[in-house]
Specification:
The complex is a heterodimer of chains A (439) and B (875). With 439 residues, chain A is of the alpha/beta class. In chain A, 49% of the residues lie in helices and 8% in strands. Chain A has 24 helices and ten strands. A six-stranded mixed β-sheet of chain A has the order 1-2-4-3-5-6, sandwiched between helices. A four-stranded parallel β-sheet of chain A has the order 8-7-9-10, with helices on both faces. Chain A starts with 6 loop residues before the first helix and ends in an 8-residue tail after the last helix. The chains are: A alpha/beta (439), B alpha+beta (875). Chains A and B meet through helix 1 and helix 3 of A and helix 2 and helix 12 of B. The complex binds flavin-adenine dinucleotide and iron/sulfur cluster (2 copies).
């Protein structure tokens, strides 16, 4: 297990002095009251292996994969132990010791690096949703990558869209870029008053919530931006979370090559997880020759919530809503973007924003976590739902496709009549003329 | 011996399948706490109901299986580590807030409720729960009970035991027991006091009733930086000498300052040797002036810098260094042991210097963050646990620091507990007879020794095993007519041993203000034991012999501008020992706490012929079982108290009293409720019924004109501005409840009135019955109504605390009296409290329904008084 020998791991584990301060905010602990589900014990387990006190047992897999990688523990940890990063390395060691499933290999190594093939499979899934073909096919939906425990998959994606985001580019005024291969599109406004930006199309964005992405793009267009879309591949977060850093590096390298060649000020996405992971590239590629370009690229990455406040958008029309906002882990915690989305909401007349208790607690979606750990995910979600209910809001807003899907399923299961919407979608309704609003 | 499959199945059944596990990885997760000791349980159970706890404990007791309770596992002394395997009983799933009772200022929680969840919830009601351990965001209330946890606020507000009024406990054999309730006091021995701080070795706490306080109106944070620890310590003493008790007094020494500066750039100057954070809280009116005083004191002691937080952001900035301290230390070395000792505050500079020396001797970096107000010190011993040699040196240094604490009159642990890590040091800190007394308690609660085994007490050593009762020096008088005047502690012990051998009844007496008919017992008079043993006014403690009169003590303290918040009727006669034995509480209990809160230590002579010490000069102390709690209100039934240590306080700079006439009791109760839950902080709220008022007025003023009105008397004590503000606030509040403005009493009028109020029996003149009821403070009205059916009853209600004192002349018709008392008993019970005899107990006791002692109290009585020579247990 070479990974567990890294100096990083050794130092990190040494610093966990079992104080238990992570108990307060670790969602899996608070959902279960079980020490085995808190950062302290996860670290203790890895330490036992790392210091040779225990074998890396097959049963340990569940423990490592039960962590949401939400990073909340690090925030309450006085010594700044990064349990999420420790878990990634532990998962890697675990995979090496106990192997991958063919399905995961197939997805990470074959599908994710090839957008066209990926789209084909995703279509199959979309079709499957309607015709009821086998569970396996359905399982190939993008958020449903990692786990063979698939019984919860269906409830999560309420309706797979028929048209993915990339399919809609021509209707949005985008044109193929001439001197580029297939997959490059560009939208030029009559007058550039906003930014020149490169739009990163995340997998969840493209396949699962294309309507929301369209809304985001329309806002950018209204703000006078010059927008280029490149044939980027998956950002690499899913394999990374799964402990396949190698696969993540391959995807990152592919993206660096594609995106690095574009001439733009800003690399933008409306998926909080993608923006966060793109900013993480330098660390991912540390020590490789791609480190430097990764640094350059990461410097340009912005989440859409960082950009919108500075664009000149049409005056918002009044909407009558009581809203509350959920901070996606990758946006709120990992990128410290908390104020901007709230400010954007508060600009809309008639919208009353109620602060959500524990707004930055993980919703339990955590990429494909809801599929790999359905029970735990549901318990974590239950706490979130309860907090949302307490606010009395009619609309719950967030800014990450995975969260939108998880939260929507939570509201549905709890029988709550609360709309879950992506921030862009909501802003578009306010700032854009009604007929222009996305369907 | 591994658990049988059968037992695993039964235990699983008791808690439900989803709440039990024997998965090896789960077991691994329950083998540690926040300290270094490790040991794996054989099964982990997560009970969700009290019944499940009862079932598990009964089963385990029957089979002799060890059980170790656990909350969040943040203990720093190995408390929740199952040293002998068996069951790890995890309370994290019993985490509900069961009741929020703002009018009575009580909440009831399950043990797994996190301290900070309670704080957050209470903030919505503008209240707080005072004990604030640094780990409060993650530790459970059950763990807090077990460790008698405290935090920065403890100098002013006290520790867990001062804020818990009731517990529900499952005993190691599965028996369910209620100790106390919502009322401030409970009859009989203070078992709740013994449970608190017992480190989870006497039973499982399944419900906790605690006291809550209104949020202070205002908080001011200040920071002072010094180039010497001595100067900083002088500033602390200066602040306290000036009559202020800050809510927080946190100090960091040079090593920590360096680390903090490197990590968070708090902006401390490079020559800083001590950073002091001071927080005052209370009524806004008085704070301004106090802040000025603090500033003067701090700068006159040579502060390099002094800052007062102007707003919330500034406040955060001042705290930033302190809050970042632990993280900063982690940059120096990955691991640390947070040592925990408490010493008299006056010893702090010396102890700090020595601690650094100890560190140097072992080649270790030591930094100190400490609660300067209460002398609780946490030297941080830094190391890397990958280096075994360093680990050994750290453990050695830890031991030396513990020894140092004991040498300077401090205690082994202020808040982290003995657990298994400091058990070895107990014989160093406690005399053999003290340990024997603790062991007796443990044996009563847990006769098999299977409940959380291996904690707190080490196996008995030779000194403890060889304890023998000493012979009596001179023969005892044959008749009981003349008391034996006890001249020394040893003599008291020898006499008790002798009468135990002879099976001759004795009764310890002091000023005899509370003892009625002695019956056929030999009086042991404490009044020759009347010296002050140690008055450490800077440390705010005094230790005095039991025969000293309360008034004498107060006079001695007044010379240093202090007082002890003890109020006894007849202070010229009442002795300290009697006060403790009778658990005498006066009106000022509302502002200053119960007698049990003021009492820090006790020495008492036992029937085994020993002089046992319990407690110390420190406010924080979790060094073994809190035996002294049993003596409070013991009525001499467990031994003879020979010495007591109390907290002292600076005399308030300003003092006055307000008297308000209010037509009827319900209106009065409504006003009291409003005042109790407001920001106003009177030291006493005492209600007086028309009958008592007539007696008072007859003595102090003109002949009374019976007006059938109640009176409410407020004691206002504090700094001048606070007193003015309280007067205004109470006048304003009073106006909303009645037409008459309050009367301001001058000093001597007030003094007389306070005294007479407490001595109602004397005013009556003739023979009387004295009764006392204690109920939750908002539930007094029905009881008062029941008492008022006899118009001759003189009633005094401590409206802040819910205690009701009734004196009624002895009259002809016993049947009517009996019916009246029965009515009171019912009313008290229905209000969630109880009715008992007040001083002197003799005759009134016969009117009351006898209460049956619980098995634990009976066993305690039998252990301390095996021949039954001492007075009966008060019930
Ligand atoms: C960084 C850090 C800082 C700390 N700071 C402070 C501080 O400032 N002040 C302070 O007082 N303490 C402090 N502590 C110590 C610790 O947090 C407290 O002792 C706390 O009360 C323990 O609570 P817990 O829920 O973690 O209990 P646990 O650690 O789980 O258990 C503690 C003890 O309580 C017993 N126990 C738990 N629940 C029950 C129950 N329901 N019935 C009976 N027994 C039970 C256990 O058997 C054990 O002996 C600190 C700890 C850490 C790690
Ligand atoms: S991860 Fe951090 S907070 Fe949690 S136990 Fe370890 S050191 Fe403490
Ligand atoms: S990353 Fe999240 S789920 Fe994982 S240990 Fe930390 S707080 Fe818990």
């Amino acid at each position: 297990m070479p990974e567990l020998d890294s100096e990083f791991i050794s130092n990190q584990l040494a610093r966990c002095n079992r104080c238990g301060y992570c108990i307060r905010t670790c969602p899996t602990y608070r959902a279960t009251g079980h020490e085995g589900a808190v950062a302290r014990s996860r670290n203790d387990l890895v330490r036992a292996v790392q210091r040779g006190k225990s074998e890396l047992l097959e049963e340990m897999g569940d423990r490592f994969f039960q962590c949401l990688l939400c990073g909340a523990c690090t925030e309450s940890c006085l010594t700044d132990v990064q349990t999420d990063e420790i878990m990634v390395e532990a998962r890697e060691a675990y995979r090496q010791a106990h192997g991958d499933s063919w399905l995961q290999q197939f997805i990470f190594r074959e599908l994710l690096p090839d957008p066209e093939r990926l789209a084909k499979y995703a279509r199959l899934v979309a079709l499957g949703k309607n015709t009821g073909i086998s569970g396996l096919a359905r399982s190939l939906g993008l958020l449903k990558i990692v786990s063979p425990k698939l019984d919860n998959a269906e409830a999560l994606v309420e309706h797979m869209p028929r048209e993915f985001f990339r399919d809609q580019l021509p209707h949005l005024g985008f044109h193929p870029v001439e001197d580029r291969p297939r997959g490059w599109f560009r939208y030029r406004p009559a007058r550039v008053t906003g930014l020149r930006l490169l739009y990163f199309v995340g997998c969840g964005s493209n396949f699962q919530v294309p309507g929301e992405v369209v809304a985001g793009v329309r806002l950018l267009q209204a703000g006078g931006c010059d927008i280029t879309v490149a044939p980027n591949v998956c950002c690499g977060l899913p394999p990374y979370s799964y402990g396949d850093r190698e696969a993540a590096r391959l995807l990152a390298a592919a993206n660096l090559e594609t995106l690095g060649s574009a001439d733009c000020d800003v690399l933008l996405t409306e998926c909080g997880s993608c923006s966060s992971f793109l900013k993480h590239y330098p660390r991912l590629l540390e020590g490789t020759e791609a480190a430097e370009p990764a640094q350059a690229l990461a410097g340009k990455v912005r989440d859409i919530t960082e950009v919108l406040p500075d664009l000149t958008l049409p005056e918002p029309r009044p909407l009558s809503h009581r809203v509350t906002y959920h901070d996606p882990c990758h946006l709120g915690r990992k990128q410290k973007i908390k104020a901007q989305p709230r400010d954007l909401l508060k600009r809309i007349p008639g919208v009353e924003h109620i602060e959500l208790p524990e707004a930055d607690w993980c919703c339990g979606g955590a990429g494909s976590y809801n599929l790999s750990n359905p029970d735990l995910s549901r318990k974590v979600l239950a706490r979130k739902v309860e907090n949302v209910r307490e606010t009395g809001a009619d609309t719950l807003i967030t800014s990450c496709p995975a969260c939108v899907i998880q939260l929507a399923s939570g509201m549905r299961e709890a029988g709550l009549d609360i709309q879950v919407r992506h921030l862009c979608d909501f802003l578009a309704e306010a700032h854009l003329p009604p007929d222009d609003a996305p369907c | 011996m591994p658990l049988s499959r059968y037992l695993v199945a039964r235990l699983t059944e008791a808690v439900g399948r989803a709440n039990a596990t024997t998965d090896p990885l789960d077991l691994m997760a329950y083998e540690y706490d926040g300290a270094l000791e490790r040991s794996r349980p054989e099964i982990v159970l997560f009970p969700t109901t009290t019944q499940a706890v009862v079932d598990v404990l009964s089963l385990c007791y029957e089979k002799g299986v060890p059980v170790t309770p656990r909350g969040s596992g943040t203990c720093l002394s190995g408390g929740p580590v199952p040293l002998r395997g068996g069951v790890s009983l995890v309370l994290s799933r019993m985490d509900k807030l069961l009741e929020m009772d703002v009018p009575n200022q009580r909440v009831i929680v399950q043990p797994g409720h996190l301290n900070f969840d309670l704080i957050e919830r209470l903030a919505k009601e503008r209240h707080l729960y005072a004990p604030d351990p640094a780990s409060q965001r993650v530790c459970t209330m059950g763990g807090n009970i077990a460790e008698n946890s405290g935090g920065p606020h403890c100098l002013k507000y006290g520790v867990t035991t001062n804020h818990v009024t009731g517990l529900q406990v499952v005993l190691p054999d599965g028996g369910l027991m209620t100790m106390g309730g919502k009322a401030l006091e409970a009859p009989g021995y203070d078992l709740r006091g013994v449970m608190i701080g017992s480190e989870g070795t006497l039973g499982v706490v399944t419900e906790i009733t605690c006291r809550i306080l209104p949020l202070p109106e205002s908080v001011v944070t200040m920071l002072a930086i010094y180039d010497s620890i001595i100067k900083a310590a002088e500033a602390v003493s200066g602040i306290i000498a000036a009559g202020m008790i800050p809510a927080t007094l946190e100090m960091m020494d040079r090593q920590i300052i360096r680390a903090v500066e490197a990590a968070v750039h708090a902006g401390y100057p490079l020559d800083a040797e001590a950073v002091l954070i001071i927080e005052l809280d209370g009524m806004a009116a008085g704070l301004e002036d106090q802040v000025r005083q603090v500033q003067e004191i701090c700068t006159s002691r040579g502060a390099l810098r002094f800052e007062v937080a102007a707003d919330e952001a500034h406040r955060d900035r001042l705290w930033r260094g302190r809050k970042g301290a632990f993280g900063a230390v982690a940059r120096i070395a990955p691991n640390k042991i947070t040592t925990d000792i408490a010493v008299p505050r006056t010893e702090l500079p010396r102890v700090l210097a020595e601690v650094i020396e100890i560190g140097k001797r072992h080649g270790l970096d030591v930094g100190n963050v400490f609660h300067a107000g209460d002398g609780n010190l946490h030297p941080q011993l830094l190391f890397d646990d990958r280096n075994p040699d360093e680990v050994a040196r750290v453990l050695a240094a830890d031991k030396e620091i513990a020894k140092l604490a004991v040498e300077v009159g401090g205690v082994l642990t202020g808040e982290h507990g003995i657990g298994c890590q400091k058990a070895y040091a107990m014989p160093m800190a406690c005399a053999p007879q003290d340990l024997a007394a603790m062991r007796a308690l443990k044996d009563i609660f847990d006769p098999q020794g299977t409940f959380n085994p291996g904690k707190v007490l080490p196996p008995p050593n030779d000194a403890e095993l060889q304890l023998h009762p000493p012979p009596c020096a001179s023969p005892l008088p044959a008749s009981n007519d003349q008391p034996v005047v006890v001249e020394s502690y040893a003599e008291a012990a020898a006499i008790l041993a002798e009468v135990t051998r002879e099976q001759r009844r004795v009764v310890p007496v002091g000023g005899r203000t509370k003892v009625g008919d002695l019956g056929a017992a030999l009086p042991l008079d404490s009044r020759a034991l009347r010296s002050i043993v140690d008055y450490d006014w800077e440390n705010l403690t005094v230790t005095a012999q039991a025969g000293l009169r309360v008034a004498e003590l107060q006079a001695a303290l007044a010379e240093h501008g202090q007082f002890a918040p003890l109020t006894a009727p007849f202070p010229d006669r009442a002795t300290l020992g009697g006060l403790v034995a009778a658990n005498s509480n006066g009106p000022l209990r509302y502002g200053y706490g119960e007698l049990r809160d003021v009492l820090l230590g006790v020495r008492f002579a036992t029937c085994g012929g020993q002089v046992v010490t319990s407690g110390s000069k420190t406010v924080k102390n979790v060094c073994g079982y809190d035996v002294k709690r049993l003596l409070v209100g013991s009525g001499g039934s467990l031994g003879m108290i020979v010495e007591a240590t109390f907290r002292t306080l600076p005399l308030p700079p300003a003092e006055s009293a307000l008297l308000l006439r209010i037509g009827d009791f319900p209106t009065l109760a409504a006003l009291s409720l409003e005042v109790r839950t407001s920001h106003l902080l009177p030291s006493a709220l005492e209600a007086v019924n028309p009958a008592l008022w007539n007696l008072l007025a007859a003595r102090n003023m003109q002949p009374p004109e019976p007006d059938g009105q109640w009176r409410l008397l407020f004691a206002l004590r504090g700094c001048a501005a606070d007193v003015v503000e309280m007067r205004a606030g109470l006048t304003e509040a009073g106006a909303r409840f009645g037409p008459e403005p309050p009367v301001l009493l001058d000093g001597s009028q007030a003094a007389f009135l306070w005294r007479d109020v407490a001595e109602a029996s004397r005013l009556l003149g003739g023979p009387f019955y004295g009764l006392k009821a204690v109920v939750p403070p908002a539930e007094v009205a029905p009881l008062v109504a029941a008492a008022s059916t006899d118009p001759s009853a003189a009633i005094r209600v401590s409206a802040g605390s819910g205690s009701v004192h009734i004196v009624v002349p002895t009259r002809g018709d016993p049947a009517a009296l009996g019916a009246w008392v029965a009515g009171l008993e019912t009313a008290a019970r229905e209000a969630g409290g109880w009715l008992g005899p007040d001083a002197p107990p003799g005759s009134a006791r016969d009117l009351l329904t006898p209460r049956r002692p619980d098995c634990i109290s009976k066993a305690i009585k039998a252990a301390f008084d095996p021949a039954g020579v001492l007075p009966a247990m008060p019930l």
